[in-house]
Amino acid sequence: MRPKPMRVVSGIQPTGNLHLGNYLGAIRNWVRMQDDIASHGGDCLFFLADMHALSQPHIPAELSANTREMTAALIACGVDPDRSILFNQAQVPAHAELQWLLSGTARMGWLGRMTQFKDKSGKNREGASIALFTYPVLQAADVLLYQATHVPVGEDQKQHLELARDIAQKFNNDFGNGIDIFTLPDPIIPTGAARIMSLRDGSAKMSKSDPSDMSRINLTDDADTIMQKVKKARTDAEPLPGEAAGLTGRPEAANLVAIYAAMTGTGMDDVLRTFAGKGFGAFKPALGELLVERLVPINARFVELRQDRAALDAILRKGAEKARTLAAPTLAAAYAALGLVRG
Ligand code: TYM
After folding, report:
1. Where are the domains of the chain?
2. Nearest to 241 by CA among 250, 232, 228
């Protein structure tokens, strides 16, 4: 049997700014896979998960503004709307439809184990929205709808992807009649940058929901802000060791070295060979300069692109049109498999 052509699918919530964790954990792989796919055949679909944003309190005007801004940021990072299908979920109703169709298959117990729900609902579980609980079913629909073979994400999304596989497998078993209605997707998680941590707390991931802006590097930060954030990043008083094993128990130091390694495409041991014995007084300016050199051009492109709202809307409209076409056969197959009559 011929292998299935690669179908790369991934999404990002358009809440807040694109930060270094998103970039190193996911977006950089989106761009790499897009370049790869162009020479090997297949498709890349990247979307703004605006429907997911409803799971948390939000301000409608901010959601639409952020959806356009995040579109501009993704293009500035190298997502090319001519080679990848770039769209927002709200323009492809098949995502929400398939979520409902999968809701009969997903189990309460499976969703109850999702650590992101536990983290985000915290002590207020009774007051959390239903959307926050069923969110991973929408995420499963996002990828199963397109027969995704590969899903580039950071480490924090691994559990959601495993759930998508479980849902796909059970649906195929229960309703497929010997045919696989859905493809089981493989997560693509980068080594080294799978989990970029907060600059203020080495035990918390870098996140757009952290109230302190000093905890993250935004891809929209200017050079001075980047330097300032790196200089103020929490560290310890010890010099850097000669190899990564020496960073055990030093999460903040390990995080900064991991960021340096990921930005230069090298390993942590390579970085430490250069900086062994040096303190953060030497390492931080070097890291800051590296980040400025790489991120400032992205920021410049972003500032230009975000101004043309009509162009961004046209890109999303065109992408959604293509996505709707690709989604249609799988959605129809799911309806039919469930015995739903559609005329
Ligand atoms: P989101 O919007 O929180 O993050 C987008 C991508 O960035 C990665 N990421 C990180 N990687 C490394 N270190 C970090 N500190 C870090 N923070 C974020 C995330 O792993 C993700 O890949 N539920 C998803 C969005 C989504 C999705 C999907 C993803 C909706 N449907 C279908 C893949 C497939 C989310 O909230 O990601």
Report:
1. 7-194+309-337, 213-305
2. 250
| Catalytic annotation present for 120 | yes
Question: b vs e for 79-108, b when ≥16 Cβ sit within 10 Å of the residue's Cβ?
Answer: bebeebbbbbbbbbebbebbbebbeebbee
Range 213-305 has CATH code 1.10.645.10: no
Q: Which of 120, 158, 284, 322 is catalytic?
A: 120
Write the pLDDT tens digit of every residue in 238-292. Answer: 999 999 999 999 999 999 999 999 999 999 999 999 999 999 999 999 999 999 9
Q: Find the residues whose C-beta lies inside 6 A of ligand 1.
A: 10-13, 21-22, 25-26, 49, 52, 139, 142-143, 151, 153-154, 156-157, 194-196, 205-207
Does domain 7-194+309-337 correspond to CATH entry 3.40.50.620? yes
Joined together, the tokens standing for residue 66 give 């952020």
Q: How far apart are CA 86 and CA 141, in angstroms?
A: 17
User: Quick one: which atom of ligand 1 is closest to the CA of 142?
Assistant: 32
Judge whether 208 counts as a catalytic residue.
yes
Type of residue numbered 253: A
> How far is the C-alpha of 196 from the C-alpha of 19, rounded, in Å?
10
Judge whether 7-194+309-337 and 213-305 match in fold.
no
